[in-house]
């Protein structure tokens, strides 16, 4: 799932970069779009860091990085709100929602992993469940 989120963030950054080229001579709008492209790049970086955290069983840090990945597109959305007369592109809204949903699933799985590992009733069967959950997150 983290990999799917990274793919979404990278594809959205690429989409935004192409929009900079097709935007008219509106320099302020170009700046907003470039800033948004950077935000999606940061979201990708945060998800990459989350994968490293998961490999190290650092679930609290993984949770923090995925939460950051969700917030970067929100900052992009807010940039459009600050630009008078601009509408948030529907294509970008769809991509933002998709990334948020993917990250919500990842956060739920990380929450389960952290809860089980912190439990005093550690069950050996959980080792198998953990392997399945981690393989799900890595895709």
From TrEMBL:
The keyword Disulfide bond applies. Transmembrane segments: none annotated. It comes from the Eukaryota. Residues 1-109 form the Pectinesterase inhibitor domain. InterPro entries: Invertase/methylesterase_inhib, Pectinesterase_inhib_dom. Keywords: Disulfide bond, Signal. GO terms for molecular function: enzyme inhibitor activity. The keyword Transport does not apply. Belongs to the PMEI family. This is Pectinesterase inhibitor domain-containing protein.
């Amino acid at each position: 799932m983290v990999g799917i989120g990274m793919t979404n963030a990278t594809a959205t950054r690429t989409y935004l970069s192409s929009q900079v080229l097709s935007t008219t001579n509106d320099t302020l709008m170009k700046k907003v779009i470039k800033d948004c492209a950077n935000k999606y790049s940061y979201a990708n970086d945060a998800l990459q860091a989350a994968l490293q955290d998961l490999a190290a069983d650092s679930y609290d840090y993984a949770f923090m990085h995925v939460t950051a990945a969700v917030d970067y597109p929100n900052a992009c959305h807010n940039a459009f709100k600050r630009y008078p007369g601009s509408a948030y592109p529907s294509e970008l809204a769809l991509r933002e929602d998709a990334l948020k949903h993917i990250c919500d699933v990842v956060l739920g799985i990380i929450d389960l992993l952290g809860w089980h590992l912190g439990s005093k009733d550690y069950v050996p069967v959980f080792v198998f469940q953990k392997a399945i959950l981690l393989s799900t997150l890595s895709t």
